[in-house]
Amino acid sequence: MADPVPEIKTPYKSEISVAIVYYSQWNHTKKIAEHVLKGASKVEGVTVDLYNAKDAIANIDKIQQYDAFIFGSPTYFGSVSAGMKEFFEATTEFFATRSLQDKIAAGFTNSASQSGDKQGTLTQIFTYCCQQGMVYVPLGLPATNNKTVHNMDALNRTSFFSGLATQSFVDGTPETATEKSDLRTAEFFGEKVTRVFVKYYH
Ligand SMILES: Cc1cc2nc3c(=O)[nH]c(=O)nc-3n(C[C@H](O)[C@H](O)[C@H](O)COP(=O)(O)O)c2cc1C
Questions:
Q1: How does residue 110 score in pLDDT terms, banded at 50, 70 and 90?
Q2: What ligand 1 atom has the least distance to the C-alpha of 25?
Q3: ipTM > 0.95 for the complex
Q4: Fewer CB in 10 Å around end: N or C, the chain?
Q5: Domains along the chain?
């Protein structure tokens, strides 16, 4: 006899809650997270809260109540930062109780190099979401640098697909280090994935 597929745990909701959880040591990823928040906040029928990883750990019971998540980490050594990993590991109980099962999520990373092995971080965020049973939403933009003229002003100029990937040059402050196009892409990403979240609960 075939194994029955369990009910999908996502009832219809006219209002959904989104938590953006990020880690940032020097506030570059924080700056990106704020632009993701700006984009997500444009969507109707949604409340969006921003947490750094430490605050999220301190409010772990509240975190599991959210309907949807956007996780962000700087890329350190081609990987999620230790502070973000700490948050992931603080949610081990959610894995055991399946409290995030069938929720919906997206991910982003920021680092100093244009690529800088950011894919490692996005893959780790994706894997975390999958292990928690969540549906993962990608960036949803085409690549922009496949032509001889590379447009720094284009959305998704870093040309990642599996999430938002932005660059903060190391010799700038959080206010000056990031290309305007990356900040626009962060805003686009926040709005785009939040629209998908809303559709998922409708
Ligand atoms: C320990 C460490 C490892 C890093 N590894 C990478 C890397 O693998 N690729 C990269 O492009 N940048 C790397 N960087 C640069 C950071 O990703 C970059 O400065 C980022 O903007 C810092 O974000 P934050 O201010 O949110 O902490 C590294 C920085 C540190 C401190």
A1: very high
A2: 27
A3: yes
A4: N
A5: 16-201 (3.40.50.360)
* Segment 31-48 mean pLDDT: 98
The Cα 176–Cα 174 span in angstroms is: 6
Mean pLDDT of all residues in 109-138: 97
83 CB within 6 A, ligand 1: no
H helix count then E strand count, the chain: 7, 7
Query: Of 79, 52, 78, 76, which is closest to residue 63 (Cα–Cα)?
Result: 52
Mean predicted confidence (pLDDT) in 101-130: 97
Please check the confidence at residue 53 and state whether its pLDDT lies above 90.
Answer: yes
Please tell me the pTM assigned to this model.
0.96
Rounded to the nearest 10 degrees, the angle between the axes of helix 28-40 and helix 180-201 is: 50
Q: Is 158 in the pocket of ligand 1 (CB under 6 A)?
A: no
Q: What is the chain's alpha carbon radius of gyration, rounded to the nearest angstrom?
A: 17
